Amino acid sequence: MSTPPAEAKTIGAQTFADCGEGKSHLKLFRVNAGVPILEALEHAAHVLYYAKMLSLEAAMDPKAEKFAFASHYLCEMGKAIVDDLLLAMQPGGPHPQ
């Protein structure tokens, strides 16, 4: 049986931020375990909002291309939070790290 969404917490299974060329197996950061779902989703929403704003700025203003990588990293963080919560709610999913 899956974990009820209101009781779900991050489990710390998702990593992000590849290190080095051709080393996608090396991750620099991990979502922390034990964060309640509402707080984690609120943080993900903020991170993804700013990623959206930065990517729009990078697309519309030729002088703002420097924002593209900031947007990329923020998207990676937001996705990791959401993916970690989805794993936490799966039956028989990974245990907290």
Tell me how many strands there are. 2
User: Uncertain regions: pLDDT < 50 for 5+ in a row?
Assistant: none
The amount of helix comes to: 40-55%
Give the overall shape, derived from the CA principal axes. flat
Number of helix segments?
2
Distance between the termini: 20 Å
Average per-residue pLDDT, rounded, comes to: 89
Order of helices and strands: EEHH
The total tally of domains equals 1
Radius of gyration: 15 Å
Q: What's the multimeric state? A: single chain
Write structural notes for this entry.
With 97 residues, the chain is mainly α. The chain has one domain (5-88). Helix content is 47%, strand content 8%. The chain contains two helices and two strands; from the N terminus they run E-E-H-H. The chain has a two-stranded antiparallel sheet. A hairpin with an 8-residue loop joins strand 1 and strand 2. Helix 1 (37-60) packs antiparallel against helix 2 (67-88). The longest helix has 24 residues, at 37-60. The chain is flat, with a radius of gyration of 15 Å. It starts with 14 loop residues before the first strand and ends in a 9-residue tail after the last helix. 19% of the residues are buried. The model has no long low-confidence stretch (mean pLDDT 89).
